Amino acid sequence: MAQEDVFKKLVSHCKEYGFVFPSSEIYDGLGAVYDYGQNGVELKNNIKKYWWDAMVKLNDNVVGIDSSIFMHPTIWKASGHVDAFNDPLIDNKDSKKRYRADVLIEEQMAKYDEKIEKEIEKAKKKFGESFDEAKFRETNPRVQENQAKRDALHTRFAKALNDNNLEELRQIILDEEIVCPISGTRNWTEVRQFNLMFTTEMGSTADGSMKIYLRPETAQGIFVNFLNVQKTGRMKIPFGIAQIGKAFRNEIVARQFIFRMREFEQMEMQFFVRPGEEMKWFEYWKAFRMKWHQALGMGAENYQFHDHDKLAHYANAATDIEFRMPFGFKEVEGIHSRTNFDLSQHAKYSGKKIEYFDPELNQSYTPYVIETSIGVDRMFLSTLAGAYTEEQLEGGDSRVVLKLPAQLAPVKLAVMPLVKKDGLPEKAREILNTMKLEFNCQYDEKDSIGKRYRRQDAIGTPFCVTVDHQTIEDNTVTVRYRDTMQQERISVDELHAMISKNVNNNELFKQLV
Ligand code: GAP
User: Fold this and answer.
1) Cα–Cα dist 89/428, whole Å
2) Which of 279, 340, 270, 329 is nearest to 304 (CA)?
3) Mean of the pLDDT values across residues 84-112?
């Protein structure tokens, strides 16, 4: 199936099974804003818990905070967001549609990559076992040609971004003959910068009101609390401050479902280190964060690092962790070495001394910072994209199953009486009542058992427990496993331990420490 079709199916699956709804849907929706449904919120909360515990519980030098969304407007002047948090935009004069110039060029690079991948797939099929991909890449003229075009475009693009050269960005779009997907024409305007921050007013109107910003990242709430946490927690460098919270960006290219939203959630950690030690810690957190992703068992080959072509105004090193989405490898998390930029800027703009006295060095300094920043919604999307599976079954039947890591699954087990009589519903409820003390469970007695299994497969429930007449006699149930569809008879007394072992985050954490 084409990857685009997979993505469309995933989006409708999210709606049909209560994961994600368009915001304000009965009023025809609001662009790039989404609501999470009954299953979505459980998955989202499980992702947040996995992140929070991995960062704050496993690392004894990382603590959490929860700062407010509204902050003093000077914070955003100091951080550089008022002047530099911009996207380069270009309009197509025929369709009147607006695009991000950098995204148009990135999509063009992806097209060269796709051409190369197609050649490789074709050759793989032709040569079978004996296929040598590295050699093919080096020698095939069509691959070579596309690779050369891609590399040249990449170099030119990176230079234009770093020089902030908007004219050159436009020229690249013209030279590459990039057309508007709506009008199909190359009738482009100039490229202009557009600030992404939302503003609102605080206080009464007339004289007393103040223009404030909805935070575009949670990170600044951490920086401005650096002294509070360091002093009250008696934290010693190196240490980190973590936070989960909403962020807002007036994204122009707001496509791809929850990949790029105007209101979204971030999980960020700022790790404060001695100046000069930042690269060591940058490598440390890169490795730790990659392990966190891969521990979920969705295939190491589906992740890659991607170093930034253009460093943000505050960074001296930056990489992304990308996941293979149905629309290609895409950024899920950013890891940045932010130097001492933010703390120095806040010291300058607030007039307060923001330093750390290092007792081992017997000197004060402004700490350097390594940041790990992951979008909850992107993590949600990548998890669902990795889990969504359509399977053909024996006998011509088929099923859609979300092969979610059991730890993240919204519902951990469904309890089902085989029939609605003979005391089976009562026994099933009795089992449910003990299990629900710890796990998110569902009770289901409607329709055939096969239909009930399919419903649970569609939301990714790892275990279905069927209560039948034998249960009344010997206190055993049939457990049906989601991925293998195999069934096993086990004692009700063993049920709790079996589920707990599988859904508890501990097994994941063991891979991180
Ligand atoms: N504090 C650094 C920072 O905000 P970023 O690369 O702009 O860095 C970090 O954002 C992460 O936040 C991204 O990797 C992505 O997962 C998520 N993110 C950013 N913009 C987003 C948007 N418009 N919609 C959904 N997630 C977004």
Assistant:
1) 58
2) 329
3) 93
CA of 312 to the centre of ligand 1 (A): 13
Q: How confident is the model at residue 6, as a pLDDT?
A: 87
Question: Ligand 1 mean position to 88 CA, how many Å?
Answer: 17
- For atom 14 of ligand 1, the residue with the nearest CA is 333
Q: Which atom of ligand 1 is nearest to the CA of 249?
A: 23
Q: Taking residues 366-395, what's their average pLDDT?
A: 96
Nearest residue CA, atom 9 of ligand 1? 373
331 lines ligand 1 (CB under 6 A): yes
Residue range 17-27: average pLDDT? 97
pLDDT at 1: 66
Residue 261: CB within 6 Å of ligand 1?
Answer: yes
**Closest ligand 1 atom, residue 216 Cα:** 4
pLDDT confidence of 387, banded at 50, 70, 90? Answer: very high
Q: Is 249 in the pocket of ligand 1 (CB under 6 A)?
A: yes
The single residue listed with the structure tokens 């007695």 is 445
Q: Which two tokens stand for residue 237?
A: 């460098």
For ligand 1, atom 7, name the residue with the nearest CA.
Answer: 217
Nearest-CA residue for ligand 1 atom 18 is 375
HEC assignment per residue over 230-277 = HHHCCCCCCEEEEEEEEEECCCCCCCCHHHCCCEEEEEEEEEEECCCC
pLDDT single digits (tens) 156-211: 999 998 888 999 999 999 999 999 999 999 999 999 999 999 999 998 766 678 99
Taking the centre of ligand 1 as the mean of its atom positions, its distance from the CA of residue 23, in whole angstroms, is: 20
Nearest partner of 316 among 340, 334, 299, 333, judged by Cα: 340
Q: What is the mean pLDDT of residues 266-294?
A: 98
Distance, CA of 48 to CA of 45 (rounded, Å): 5
H/E segment holding residue 21: strand 20-22
The percentage of residues in the chain with a pLDDT greater than 90, rounded to a whole number, is 90
- Cβ-based neighbour number of residue 138 at 10 Å: 11
- Measuring from atom 20 of ligand 1, which residue has the nearest CA? 260
Distance 418 CA to ligand 1 centre (A): 47
Tokens representing residue 23 in the block: 């915001």
pLDDT surpasses 90 at 486: yes
Listed residue (370, 197, 399, 405) closest to 289, CA to CA = 370
Residue 254 pLDDT grade (very low, low, confident, very high; cuts 50, 70, 90): low
Ligand 1 contacts CB of residue 374 (under 6 A): yes
